[in-house]
Amino acid sequence: MKKILYIVSVLFLFALSACLEEMHESITEGGEAPSQILNPVVENLPGGARVSYTIPDNNNNLLYVKAVCELKSGDIREVRASYYTDNLLIDGFGDTLEYTVNLYSVGRNNMISEPVKVKINPLEAPIWQAYKSLSIKEDWGGVSFTFKNQSESNIVFEFMMKDSLDNWVSINNFYTERDSAMFSVRGFEPKEYTFGVTVRDRWLNRTDTLVGNYTPWYEEKLDKTLWKKANLPTDYTLGHSGTYFEKIFDEIYSDNGWISKPDIDGSLGGGMPQWFTIDLGVKARFSRLVVFYRRGDYLYKSGCPDEFEIYGSNNPNPDGSIDDSWTLLRECKTVKPSGLPHGQSTQEDDDYAAAGDEFIIDVAESFRFFRWKTLSNQAGSTHLNFVEMSLYGQVVE
What we know:
This protein is mainly beta. It has helices at 2-28, 126-133, 347-355, and strands at residues 38-45, 48-54, 62-70, 76-82, 87-91, 99-107, 116-120, 135-139, 142-148, 155-162, 168-176, 180-186, 193-201, 210-214, 220-221, 228-229, 258-259, 274-292, 305-313, 327-333, 357-360, 367-377, 385-386, 388-395.
């Protein structure tokens, strides 16, 4: 028996040694550089170019193809494509100048072919397309800007202002891949400021700075210590899992907020739609509503709001009905920047939620009572869950 085991062990080691030798030979075999790629074709794209090519049939030793290009700054851009594909994308250009790209075939033995040279002329980079579409306007407590990013590229808007010494000071950076959006900077007094915004990409290419003088509109954050539950007959404010209604205006942003009690059979009066009413303690013209959602595993899921309406009133019908005693302020839908399906989100989604989902209110009347009517949540179920809400505007009395 021992003799048989010995023979088997020897045969196994011999086979393993042969395999290792074969693997070693397949990597170093030939000692020559692979053949150059053939028939390169250039497709110029915004901020870069795609180069398609043919791999010779006899190129068994090829590991990858790489493109090398020297930028006008002197930096080197290098891109690689495996032998499984017949094209590569070289991007990250901030201008539309002509560039020479060297295409190399690289073997499994690390030998490199002579280059095949092609000329590329990148089209206008996404940052410049976004920059040219920028529009800035005065807004409540600051300024807002809109843009278009048709290629949905990963870009950054750097917002800044001039201080009392005429120096530029950074205010905020907005990271996005959205095709269009509106961003705002707020918290400024109603006096003239010089604001500027520039656009950059992940390769640190930058546009010019769009500069202008703007005077923000006056607004203030309504004092939540004056708020109280209105307790109108049709309001639904039951809490679930130990939460209570007033948590949505307690100025605590680090907990789970208020979770309305799920009403599966409708016996509690909390199916969909459901609504609640707040007595603000003052009469004010509203400028905007900011909602903070529960984040982590619950962001854009479960009881997170989806579609809802907001109303204002000074003399709500005491029977709790939504009638002509209420003025519709706006119809709202939760903003999810990525637009991904239910259950999926990105870092931009989380950053947006952390800053608060903002809804501008364009109604000139002033109101003391505020009503939220939930039409649906993210899960299509019967409860509502968010952490905090804030109202801004101008107090009248």
